[in-house]
C-alpha cells in the first residue's frame, strides 16, 4: 500500500459528557488538521523550530495553548515584558497564517443534542463520524483514496484511548451508518506512546 501525500492531526476542545454540561462551554468540537507532507517538512516544521530557537534557544518546547494564554511554565517569560509577549504572539500568529493546511471541523451543541434526541449519540462519536466522512471526500478530491492516510490522535490515557479506538472502529465498520461510503480502516497505536495512529485506507 502506497502512503498518502497528506497527514492528519486531530485535536478536540471541551468534554463530551451529556450528563454534566458545563454552562460556560456547552459545546464539544473536534478538528482534523490536514497537511500535505511536503509542506509539513519543508515549511511548517522549520518555521516552528525557528520560533523555538528564537525564544528559548532550543526546540524541545511544546506549544500548549493553555500555557501560552496563561503565561505558565515555559511561557512565564511572556509576563515580564509586554513587548516580548507582543512580538512572540505576532510571530506565532504569522506562522499560523502562513501555514498551508486544511481544517475539517465539527462543533456539537450539547444542549441542542440532548433536546432533540431521546437517546443521543456521544458528541465525540458524532463529531468523529462527521469529520471522517469529510476526510474521505477530501481524499477523493485530491486523488488519495488508493493510499494509506495516517490520522494522528493525541494519547489521553489507557481508558480514554480504548474508548476512542472503539468509537473509531464502530464508525468505520458501518455501525454508525456510513451509508454509501465504503472506507475500511486499520487501527495502529503509535510506538512512541505519544500519539495514536489510525490508518484509513481510502476506497475507490
What features would you describe in this structure?
With 204 residues, the chain is an alpha+beta fold. Helix content is 41%, strand content 23%. The protein has 6 helices and 6 strands; from the N terminus they run ββαααβααβαββ. A 6-stranded mixed sheet has the order 3-2-1-4-6-5. A hairpin with a 5-residue loop joins β5 (185-189) and β6 (195-200). α1 (37-56) runs antiparallel to α3 and α5 crosses α6 (158-172). The model is unreliable at 179-196 and 199-204 (pLDDT under 50).
Task: Quickly list its features.
single chain; alpha+beta; 6 strands; 41% helix; 23% strand; disordered C terminus
Q: Give the H and E element order.
A: EEHHHEHHEHEE
- The helix-and-strand class reads alpha+beta
Regarding quaternary structure, what we see is single chain
Q: Give the low-confidence spans.
A: 179-196, 199-204
Helix content: 40-55%
Strand line-up across the major sheet: 3-2-1-4-6-5
Biggest sheet record: 6 strands, mixed
**Cα distance spanning the termini:** 14 Å
What is the typical, i.e. mean, pLDDT?
83
Note the total helix count.
6
Overall 3D form: globular
Secondary structure: elements and pairs:
Layout: E1 3-13, E2 27-36, H1 37-56, H2 65-70, H3 82-98, E3 102-109, H4 110-116, H5 123-141, E4 148-154, H6 158-172, E5 185-189, E6 195-200
Parallel strand pairs: 1-4
Antiparallel strand pairs: 1-2, 2-3, 4-6, 5-6
Short description:
It is built from six helices and six strands; from the N terminus they run E-E-H-H-H-E-H-H-E-H-E-E. It has 204 residues and is an alpha+beta fold.
